[in-house]
Amino acid sequence: MSNHVFSATATLIDQLKTECTSRDFSLVMDEPCKRGNESSGMTPLEALLSAIGACKCIAAKSFAKSQKIDLIDIKIELDGEIDTDGFYGINKEAKMGFHKITSKYYIQANNSDKEIKEFVNFVERTCPVLDTIINAPELSNEINIIKK
User: Fold this and answer.
1) What tens digit of pLDDT does each residue of 38-71 get?
2) What is the H or E stretch that residue 48 is in?
């Protein structure tokens, strides 16, 4: 087995605004304020949907030729359904995260419908982000308390 470690850092910078960094890249995530729905970035749940979609697009592009798919274009729209009563504390029994994620593929390729459907199944099996969600990894925490 050949293991590789990917790393990212999330740092709270103001209110709920968080800067997320990995390698030399960064993005801001935030939650809309209740008043005006304003925020300075996508929410972590939106980022998760985006990561799934990006991973599927990358897998599709990376493997299209080896799967004999003449891929011209691909777009994937994702919808995540969540019971917000969970994280708002209204219903302590409600699931905290998404209970359903729907991917809508828009594919332009010079292949038959059957070949494209089989290719989508291949992409679903090949996407590491999706695999991480379906087959949850072992999770652990290290707590470092900083005292002033």
Assistant:
1) 788 999 999 999 999 999 999 999 999 999 999 9
2) helix 44-63
The answer to whether the beta carbons of residues 119 and 69 sit under 8 Å apart is yes
Q: 12 is written with which tokens?
A: 């709270």
C-beta of residue 103 within 8 angstroms of C-beta of residue 129? no
**Model confidence at 36: pLDDT above 90:** no
pLDDT above 90: residue 34: no
Backbone angles phi, psi at 67, to 5 degrees: -95, 10
pTM of the predicted structure, to 2 decimals: 0.91
User: Which pair of tokens denotes residue 96?
Assistant: 């905290």
CA geometry: angle 87, 92, 94, nearest 5 deg: 70
Asked if residues 50 and 36 have their Cβ atoms less than 8 Å apart, the reply is no
> Token pair of 84, please?
């917000």
To the nearest 10°, report the CA torsion of 41, 16, 77, 48: 120
140 C-beta neighbours (distance < 10 Å), count: 5
Instruction: Find tokens 């994702």 and name the residue.
Output: 78
